[in-house]
Amino acid sequence: MGPSGSGKSTLLDLLADRTLVGEWSGNILFNGGPRSRWFSRDSAYILQDDLHIPTLTVRETIYFAACCKLREGTSKEAINQRVQELLEITGLHVVQDSIVGDPSRKGISGGQLKRLSIAVEIVSLPKTIFLDEPTSGLDSTIALDVMAAIRRIADQNRTCISTIHQPSTAVYEMFDTIVLLCHGHLIYFGPAKEVVQHFTSGPMAYYYIPGQNPAEFILEVSEGVITPMDATNTNGNGMTNIVPTQEQFVRKYADSVYYTAPLVTSATPIDPTAPAVHNYQSGRLHATTKWTQFKMLLWRDGLSILRDVDAFYAMLGKSIVVGLLIGVVFYRQGVTTLPLFDPYGVPYAEVQNISALLFFGMMHSMITNVEAIPHICSKNHIFRREVDSFAYSVSPYWLTAMISHLPLQFVGYVIFVTITFFLCHFTQTFEYYVYYAVAVFLANVCSYNFALLLGATVKREGTALVAFPLIFLFFSTFAGYPILIPDVPPFWSWAPTINFVRWCYQGLMVNQWYEYDHDATANGSVLALYDFQNWNKYASYGILLAMFALTSTLAYVAMRPPARQLSWFPAKEDEGRVVSEKKSATNPLHLPLRMTSTTSSSSRGKASTTTPSPLTDALLDAAAGAAVPRTTSESSSWPGYVPPPNSFQQQQQPSFSAASTSTTPRNTHDPSLKASTMSLRQHSRRRLVPSSSSTFITHGGQGDDADGGGGGGDGAVGFALTFRDLYYHVPITAAAGASATSPSAIASPTTATATAATATATATAAAAASTLTILKGVSGCTKPGEICALMGSSGAGKTTLLDILAYRKTIGDIHGTIAINGRVIATTEAKQLLKQVTAYVMQENIIHFPEIIFLDEPTTGLDSAISFEVMSTVRLLADQQRTVICTIHQPSPATYALFNTLLLLSEGQVLYFGPAAEAVRYFAETCPYRFPYLTGSNPAEYVIAVASGAIAPTMAEEEQPEPEQAQSALDEETDAHSSHRRTQTPRGGGGGVVVVTAAELAGFYLTTTYAERLQDDLQSPMVTTTTATVAAAVNWEDIARTSHVNTVWSQVPILMSRMFLVKRREYHQLALSLVKSIVISVFYGTIFYHLPTGTDPNVYLNRISIVFFSLISVLMSHQADIPDILEQRLLFNRERASQTISVTSYWLAKFLLDAPFNAVFVLLYSGILYALCSLRTGYRHFWFFYYILWVTDLVAYFAAQFVANISPSSEVAMSLFPVLMFFALAFEGFIIYVPEFPVWSHWATYVSYLRYAYQALILNEFDGNTELPFASLYIDELGFSTIPKANCAGYMWIFVAGHALVAYLVLKHVNFIKR
């Protein structure tokens, strides 16, 4: 433990042997010696980031881990049993068939993701478990369940080390020892139950409030939130004003009885790089063989590929569309007639067309496999985590990556080859077809491996896509078609030899022209023209297979874990003497941890607060072994377990010794919330505590004074939010992660007066139609100046309710009424108004200060002190007449005291809605079930425990009200599954325990005065007189005039400023783009260096090739933009939903910022290329050359935006982009000259923007150039004599406008985020 930045995760990484860089000194011993080579295999490291394959279900994810991590030979029955046990332990059995999901696929919740990560890592019950904040994002009950599972495994002779932020008292009691850090220094290491005694005794003693959570106490001490007691009491409040330094904390620990000197007593320090002293286990590094690992990886990849239907349809559509496109362009061009050459030895057009057909059919396999880059990069983090945990080795993963996509690739290329083969009318022989299909498929496999190699080497998707055009242009340039092999400059003569694309093309050309090569009627040799004569076409197969083996080997090398750069050096203090922290108390490098394996309840010294968990006997036996007895002190409440009656009263006082411990027993009832929480705030602390006289930012961001305390003040206007009888239904398929229809509108003003019975009937009808009901008649009211806490166990419906109130749901059916100041939110206009006066905070900062603020778990991942400061700031906002609704998992008592009202949910039903300070009294005294409350306990933990069924009622079963009376107001369908009482017998004997269902608690709540008071508020058009007064100032028509607070032109410069900061801080991407422009221009400049003039045909063909490749490089340069666009889309959709920014402002700001950079890159390319190639002289011609390339760059820029925003994932976008590219290229006029297109397809040449760019550049170079005498003949042959270059330049702007408009419309209307 320790404050944020104290070094907790760093220490955990070092202990777990996961640190790769840096230097360290000291000793880490495992069973008395250095960590063995099996240490990582036999330990588990549970990371903060919950990364899993999104298309797999929860059960499948755990099953994969079990198959890889359980010992080889484990039966399938045992594996399935272990999976089921883990599902039960972690409470994931209810979502076992739901997909995991990701930001674009709705899956399981964040808390369930965390439990899934734990289940995956502990599937083999490792000897040592490292956990990095395992309870972040979990409510106190689920956190208790999760840590109880870890406690149970630790009790089976295993060592567990965990960083944790704000554990509840119950969770804290599960820890044996505490390592407390402060700025990298060790300030306490000892028993967890004695840490309070350490800081409340001796010099620099602190005051400990009886009943306070010890975890919160020690964090406040280490953060300086509280100060030590003043022995002289000169301050009058018993506290000093001096915050101790970390050195003073270290000295206090070094002088205490808890200090233990380092265990190393040898004069020679232990080198951790030396062989282990004790090889406690022999055998292979992995639990399973590589064959088993390969089978499981292939199974997982197969499922993932088949379930990613978007990528599958994109691949299928790409093969069909490109096949049809090439088939249309080269329709019947495969028919060969003799002779092939004219009397002057010039090949006829059909020779050129067939050669071009073979080339571009082969290049399709090169460019379309770029999708392998996002595929491998997206899984890189998962791969690294699983390899580090020894789930499998690199070679099975590498082999799986090589072949998992082969079946789909084969199907796609059979479709592509078949379409092109028959539409183009190639030689109708089976042998020809087979050779053509196999050669193209092998080229496809090699190109896929090259993309895989690039992604595995670079790791970053954006960087890999920047480098991909360089590789593509290299392969395509030296393939033998754009530049004939004899014409390759001597400097680049080696390039065609290492180019696998050249050998594939050479084989295809021999397959096509070999039979005509020695035919006298051919009047020449095509193979001799291309320098492909005397070649065995089947040798191309061998070269392609060899290239496949080479790229596969290089990919394997790139996938191997990076070399460790962590160096160890012996500390000076270790040289020949024992380190004494008492002599060197400020040395932060020595952490004298003793990692012991054996534990017992007596050694922990904890009171037995809970009964055994229902961990199955099979799992216990597997964990403990026959020789290890089970402990008698079992921990925690488990899913489905309810403590016996009066268990809270029978609990002993936890042994947290303190100098000022109160003698008041903790087993007495004190339902008053203030008695247990407000004393924390009354104590003298350096905290940000809101007061009635606070000055804060007011409405509109002005710094006017505001009268707090919930009064009118000069802050916000004041909006009361009411909601009545909310029901939410989703199709069962949508709940599992599939797409569904848009949400239906909430009740219209007419529906607003509907009775609860009507809503119930609607809910029943919806449930009958294969739907899942998540919210069941939820009602509530929040007033200005109040903070309402939405609480409940995981799955209760908290976030669902928050999304509905904020109008963030995109799927499902919503029924009920939501109103602001009595104005029902039903129409589209009203929903627009709601977004203007609200803010939805999804763990990001509040940028503006709206009237209504929704917060979704704002304290997740924060320690208790920082959480209190965050919520205190929110409290100040609420005190200025703002309405705040917040979901929160496990607030501390001080944080809980900041809330005005509490809405407690369970199974989508309201168990309590009323003042937060009265919730404890309600459940402990008012409620007939009378759930016992332990004085001093955290009231937030108490109400969540009641909602989750972790506390049993105290009254006898015969005294409880009949279920029919408690449920009279609930619909029959809602309670059908839970109207009966469940009983269970706790382990260790005892009678049945009555469990009160959520339906019974919800039914009783409807009969209370709290529900009556809520109904009175809901019936009133304005909630209070004060609200009505301030609401009179609200002019809804003024708010409706604009959809956003700021205009488009005020948002644009702000967005541009933010985007520029991002670009500046990610300068490597700009640097890569700059280098790419230079490299490509130098590449082509050296190939076509100082082009001559005259009548040689190569003079003209080389200039045509320069123009063609220049356009290709400009077009492909924006393929690398797609990952960045997709990454920014998540932030854009969130800000758009909150109406922070508009679509127009975002689109315009992005264009205005990117355009200058793109213009500079194009200018750099044009200048270098033009100078090296010695193109047509004259500044006018150069600037026109640059101008056309720049306009083409604009079209490609918007085309990339269109593709990215219309695609649900990067893989789909990478499949669609080549389709658009091939369409533009096919009708450009380079592959087939414009006059040679059939009449019925000639129209396509007028809708290809590359045709106009290509024609304008050719005319710029040829038209009127006296140094090229035959220029006019080539212009006529290309068909470019009818449209002047100025007109072509003008037509390009039409394509710029069209692509920009389409990109804008897609950005505005397409959204793949589902909630």
Order of strands, main sheet, comes to 13-14-15-10-16-17
Supply the helix-strand structural class.
alpha/beta
Our Rg estimate from Cα atoms comes to 36 Å
| Apparent shape | elongated
Helix content: 40-55%
Count of helical segments?
A: 49
Sequence stretches where pLDDT stays below 50 over 5 or more residues: 264-270, 273-282, 573-714, 734-768, 843-847, 956-992, 1022-1033
N- to C-terminal distance: 35 Å
For the report, how would you describe the main beta sheet? 6 strands, mixed
The total of beta strands comes to 19
Strand content: 5-15%
What would the average pLDDT be, to the nearest integer?
Answer: 75
Description:
By secondary structure, this protein is α/β, with parallel strands linked by helices. Helix content is 47%, strand content 8%. It contains 49 helices and 19 strands. The strands form six sheets. The chain has a six-stranded mixed sheet, with helices on both faces. Strands 9-8-11-12 form a four-stranded antiparallel sheet, with helices on both faces. Strands 2-3-4 form a three-stranded parallel sheet, sandwiched between helices. Helix 17 (430-458) packs parallel to helix 21. The radius of gyration is 36 Å and the shape is elongated. The relative contact order is 0.09.
